[in-house]
Amino acid sequence: MYVDWTRIKSFANEDDPEDLEWLKSMIQNLFENTLERLNELDSLMENRDLAKIQSLLHQLKGVAANFGLVILQNQCIRAETEAKEGNQEKSIEESKKIRGIWEDTRIELQNRYFPS
Protein backbone atom coordinates (compact mmCIF):
# COMPACT_ATOMS: atom_id res chain seq x y z
CA MET A 1 0.00 0.00 0.00
CA TYR A 2 1.47 3.33 -1.11
CA VAL A 3 -1.04 5.56 0.68
CA ASP A 4 -1.76 5.91 4.39
CA TRP A 5 -5.52 6.15 4.02
CA THR A 6 -5.95 7.29 7.61
CA ARG A 7 -3.97 10.41 6.75
CA ILE A 8 -6.01 11.11 3.59
CA LYS A 9 -9.30 10.58 5.44
CA SER A 10 -8.23 13.10 8.09
CA PHE A 11 -8.56 15.86 5.48
CA ALA A 12 -12.28 15.48 4.81
CA ASN A 13 -15.42 13.55 5.61
CA GLU A 14 -15.79 11.31 2.57
CA ASP A 15 -19.49 10.84 3.37
CA ASP A 16 -20.09 14.55 2.83
CA PRO A 17 -20.36 15.27 -0.93
CA GLU A 18 -18.85 18.75 -0.59
CA ASP A 19 -15.92 17.46 1.47
CA LEU A 20 -15.36 14.65 -1.00
CA GLU A 21 -15.33 17.05 -3.95
CA TRP A 22 -12.85 19.28 -2.12
CA LEU A 23 -10.63 16.26 -1.41
CA LYS A 24 -10.80 15.16 -5.05
CA SER A 25 -9.79 18.65 -6.08
CA MET A 26 -6.80 18.51 -3.71
CA ILE A 27 -5.77 15.13 -5.13
CA GLN A 28 -6.12 16.39 -8.69
CA ASN A 29 -3.83 19.30 -7.79
CA LEU A 30 -1.42 16.81 -6.24
CA PHE A 31 -1.36 14.87 -9.52
CA GLU A 32 -0.58 17.98 -11.56
CA ASN A 33 1.98 19.49 -9.17
CA THR A 34 3.83 16.24 -8.63
CA LEU A 35 4.14 15.66 -12.36
CA GLU A 36 5.62 19.15 -12.75
CA ARG A 37 8.07 18.52 -9.93
CA LEU A 38 9.11 15.15 -11.35
CA ASN A 39 9.75 16.72 -14.74
CA GLU A 40 11.86 19.36 -13.02
CA LEU A 41 13.71 16.63 -11.10
CA ASP A 42 14.52 14.86 -14.37
CA SER A 43 16.00 18.07 -15.74
CA LEU A 44 18.02 18.69 -12.58
CA MET A 45 19.37 15.14 -12.65
CA GLU A 46 20.36 15.56 -16.27
CA ASN A 47 22.22 18.77 -15.36
CA ARG A 48 23.63 17.16 -12.21
CA ASP A 49 22.63 20.14 -10.04
CA LEU A 50 22.91 18.48 -6.63
CA ALA A 51 21.90 21.53 -4.56
CA LYS A 52 18.70 22.03 -6.55
CA ILE A 53 18.03 18.27 -6.55
CA GLN A 54 18.28 18.29 -2.76
CA SER A 55 15.90 21.26 -2.51
CA LEU A 56 13.33 19.68 -4.82
CA LEU A 57 13.57 16.34 -3.00
CA HIS A 58 12.89 18.18 0.24
CA GLN A 59 9.73 19.68 -1.29
CA LEU A 60 8.57 16.33 -2.64
CA LYS A 61 9.23 14.70 0.73
CA GLY A 62 7.08 17.31 2.48
CA VAL A 63 4.19 16.93 0.07
CA ALA A 64 4.37 13.15 0.36
CA ALA A 65 4.36 13.39 4.17
CA ASN A 66 1.37 15.76 4.16
CA PHE A 67 -0.68 13.38 2.03
CA GLY A 68 0.47 10.19 3.76
CA LEU A 69 2.31 8.88 0.69
CA VAL A 70 4.62 6.78 2.82
CA ILE A 71 6.68 4.90 0.23
CA LEU A 72 7.21 8.05 -1.83
CA GLN A 73 8.19 9.97 1.29
CA ASN A 74 10.72 7.31 2.30
CA GLN A 75 12.30 7.24 -1.16
CA CYS A 76 12.61 11.02 -1.15
CA ILE A 77 14.30 10.80 2.26
CA ARG A 78 16.82 8.28 0.89
CA ALA A 79 17.63 10.40 -2.15
CA GLU A 80 17.75 13.64 -0.16
CA THR A 81 20.07 12.12 2.44
CA GLU A 82 22.49 11.07 -0.28
CA ALA A 83 22.36 14.59 -1.73
CA LYS A 84 23.00 16.15 1.69
CA GLU A 85 26.04 13.91 2.09
CA GLY A 86 27.36 15.03 -1.30
CA ASN A 87 26.88 11.62 -2.92
CA GLN A 88 25.76 12.89 -6.31
CA GLU A 89 25.62 9.57 -8.17
CA LYS A 90 23.85 7.74 -5.34
CA SER A 91 21.37 10.61 -4.92
CA ILE A 92 20.59 10.55 -8.63
CA GLU A 93 20.29 6.76 -8.57
CA GLU A 94 17.80 6.96 -5.69
CA SER A 95 15.99 9.91 -7.30
CA LYS A 96 15.41 7.92 -10.49
CA LYS A 97 13.24 5.49 -8.49
CA ILE A 98 10.84 8.23 -7.44
CA ARG A 99 8.87 8.49 -10.70
CA GLY A 100 7.96 4.78 -10.65
CA ILE A 101 6.93 4.97 -7.01
CA TRP A 102 4.86 8.05 -7.78
CA GLU A 103 3.15 6.28 -10.67
CA ASP A 104 2.13 3.38 -8.41
CA THR A 105 0.98 5.86 -5.76
CA ARG A 106 -1.00 7.86 -8.32
CA ILE A 107 -2.73 4.72 -9.55
CA GLU A 108 -3.72 3.81 -5.99
CA LEU A 109 -5.22 7.27 -5.48
CA GLN A 110 -6.82 7.25 -8.94
CA ASN A 111 -8.50 3.90 -8.32
CA ARG A 112 -10.08 5.17 -5.12
CA TYR A 113 -11.14 8.68 -6.10
CA PHE A 114 -11.39 8.62 -9.90
CA PRO A 115 -12.31 5.06 -10.90
CA SER A 116 -12.82 4.47 -14.61
Characterization of the model:
With 116 residues, the chain is mainly α. The protein has one domain: HPT domain (Four Helix Bundle (Hemerythrin (Met), subunit A), Up-down Bundle), CATH 1.20.120. 80% of the residues lie in helices and 0% in strands. The protein is built from six helices and no strands. Helix 2 runs antiparallel to helix 6. It is elongated and about 45 Å long. The model has no long low-confidence stretch (mean pLDDT 97).
Quick description:
The protein has 116 residues and is mostly helical. The protein has one domain (17-113): Four Helix Bundle (Hemerythrin (Met), subunit A), CATH 1.20.120.160.
What is the quaternary state of this protein? single chain
Number of helices: 6
Number of domains in the coordinates?
Answer: 1
Contiguous low-pLDDT stretches (5 residues minimum) are none
SSE pattern, N- to C-terminal: HHHHHH
Structural class: mainly alpha
Q: Would you identify the CATH architecture?
A: Up-down Bundle
**CATH topology (level 3) name:** Four Helix Bundle (Hemerythrin (Met), subunit A)
Shape: elongated
Can you identify the CATH class? Mainly Alpha
Helix content: over 70%
Q: Looking at this structure, what is the CATH superfamily? A: HPT domain
List keywords for this structure.
0% strand; Four Helix Bundle (Hemerythrin (Met), subunit A); single chain; mainly alpha; 116 residues
Secondary-structure map with pairings?
Layout: H1 5-9, H2 17-47, H3 50-67, H4 70-84, H5 88-95, H6 98-113
Helix pairs in contact: 2-3, 2-6, 3-4, 4-5, 4-6
